[in-house]
Amino acid sequence: MDILDLFPQSSTPVHLVGALVVLLLVYLVSSSMFCSKEDRNEPPGPRPLPLLGNLLQLDLKRPYHSFLELSKKYGSVFTIYMGPKKVVILFGYKTVKEALVNRAEEFGDRDPMLILDEFNKGNGIIWANGESWREMRRFALSNLRDFGMGRKACEDKIVEECDHLIGAFKKFKGEAVHTEQPIYFAISNMICSMVYGNRFDYSDPVFTSLVYNTSRRSQLMGTPSVQIYNHFPWLCKWIANRKEFHKLGAASRKQNSELLSQLKKTLNSQKCRGFVDAFLIQKQNLEESGITNSHFHDENLLQTVMNLFAAGTDTTTITMRWGLLLMAKYPKTQDQVQEELSRVIGSRQVRIEDRISLPFTNAVVHETQRLANIAPISLPHKTSKDLIFHGYSIKKGTAVYPVLWSVLFDESEWEKPHTFYPAHFLDKDGKFVKRDAFMPFSAGRRVCLGEGLARMELFIFFATLMQHFCFTPPPGLSEDELDLTPLEGLSPSPLPQKLCAVPRM
């Protein structure tokens, strides 16, 4: 990472020199910050520099690569300093599973990111802790299931959305285009159907703005400058990426507030349209019972809705984009998928029950999730109590980063971890097999609450597109020239590349 990446392009040399001088002064003043450890039995790690910690030893665009090198020296549990902040890194399938699954309660709190804490203020689901988090997650899981998440009612909505997605791709008439927009719209509409109670037209300006803002904010969160701000807010408060992040957040907040206001005006307790209605009815019932200090308040509703929209849109869309790129990159695999679909399904609509009879297609979807690596580092956890783990002492409140990349690419768990190899999920007879180290949705108390929906979406949308289109590189470009290098971000997406969606029938 170049230190100049932290500053806006408009910064003058005087500004840059001034900032560096401040850094140097603080460095000198705090030179004894890391001289001794409070607990000699804490996980080992590289010696940190005063103030900067181990930041200069990390590739902030792809920190999981740096963690791999550190794990070779310090093992599967080690300590780094993100600036002045101590972080324990968990590396490899067995270690991550032991912490998140076997000791879920102790490793189950969320360590908030400053830039998000400024916006969420402890509300919502993803970044909340304590009783508010438990209440909101329990309510969300229960009600999203009621509205079809992972069930036939949800499947019917996905199938309906498939028609709109196919129509959007047919408009391209086989020409080379960027595929992300129609996929984003289709995936986002699934969340809208369950949260708001209705889908949006792909040309609706409010809808397209919500989708863009969500995608862009996710990209900004993963940039090195925002990561540095989270640890040095007093120095980097003025960075351009932080300003853009909050500007987009304010716009999304306003748009969602207007949508919620419309739903409040037309609320009918006898006809619940979606998650928002269920929340408002619960809030209304509590208030009528004289309970006015519950967790069911407007700010929690707003942040929860925004959390659901972000979590249910970005990662699944990115995985789908990787899937189409991989099919264009490996046409023989695409041919195998389409042969299986033609032989087993024919021209009828794929349903979720078809997974059993489509083992190769199912394996391709799972291998895409593994290789896509859309959450290389799980969102930050935090220990809920003092504990001993792998013989090391970890204090209550310590930030913990479970590295999911190290699980999905664990060389002791996968035959060809760095290769697109659908056979990872097939036995010798060609039947689909589950793999214990398949953990793209994280695990334990903080496992993605939309996992059931995402699995259903990925299979049906992917198989349906394979039925109707053959994805190829644009004219003049070979399969070998398609680039699988991911962009930086919390959810690494493919580089912007055009593909041709050639109709098959």
Protein topology:
Blueprint: H1 13-29, H2 63-74, E1 77-82, E2 85-91, H3 93-102, E3 109-110, H4 114-120, H5 130-146, H6 152-170, E4 176-177, H7 180-195, H8 205-221, H9 224-231, H10 233-236, H11 240-265, H12 275-288, H13 298-329, H14 331-344, H15 359-372, E5 381-382, E6 387-389, E7 392-394, E8 399-403, H16 404-408, H17 451-468, E9 469-472, E10 499-503
Helix pairs in contact: 6-7, 6-17, 7-13, 8-11, 8-13, 11-13, 13-14, 13-15, 13-17
Task: Looking at this protein, list some descriptive labels.
alpha+beta, 505 residues, 17 helices, disordered N terminus, five-stranded mixed beta sheet
Structural class: alpha+beta
Q: Could you give the order of the helices and strands?
A: HHEEHEHHHEHHHHHHHHHEEEEHHEE
* Range of strand content: 5-15%
Describe the sheet with the most strands: 5 strands, mixed
Secondary structure tally, helices: 17
Apparent shape: globular
The percentage helix is 40-55%
* Uncertain stretches: 1-17, 27-33
